[in-house]
Amino acid sequence: MVIKSLLQKLTGDAQLKEVAEKIAQSSASIVWTKVAHRVHGMTMPQARGYVRGRAGRTVKVQLEQALVKHGIHEARRTKVLDYAMNSLIATILDRKHEQQLVPTITRRAA
Predict the structure, then answer these.
(1) 36 or 104, which is more confident?
(2) What is the mean pLDDT of residues 65-82?
(3) How far is the C-alpha of 55 from the C-alpha of 63, rounded, in Å?
């Protein structure tokens, strides 16, 4: 009985994480357009908080649609929201880091 409940918990969390990843992917471009102009001048903790604040409404809209589409119970909402937000923040900060690694080309007249 314990093994059965453990397996259900593991597979349930796997489904929640999968749905959260989809939410994060669908929200990433929207959130990036909101934060791209400011996030480059911030430290990582500042950027993390800024992205979390600016992404809230977008992620919640995507979350509502995903809960209905995938038939996820309302009690699991907070867990899916946490997974989605953490995944989205990681994606945005990775994009920030990648763009900072690309050298800026300065063109000069001959």
Answers:
(1) 36
(2) 89
(3) 12
The two structure tokens encoding residue 11: 């597979």
Q: Which two tokens stand for residue 34?
A: 């909101």
Domains of the chain: which residue ranges? 2-98
- pLDDT, average across residues 28-54: 92
pTM (two decimals): 0.77
Task: Tell whether the torsion through CA atoms of 84, 85, 91 and 92 is positive or negative.
Answer: positive
Query: 96-107 b/e with 16+ CB inside 10 Å = b?
Result: beeeeeeeeeee
**For residue 64, with 0-12 CB atoms within 10 Å meaning exposed, 13-18 middle and 19 or more buried, which class applies?**
exposed
Separation CA 109–CA 30 (nearest Å): 37
Lowest mean pLDDT among 3-17, 27-41, 42-56: 3-17
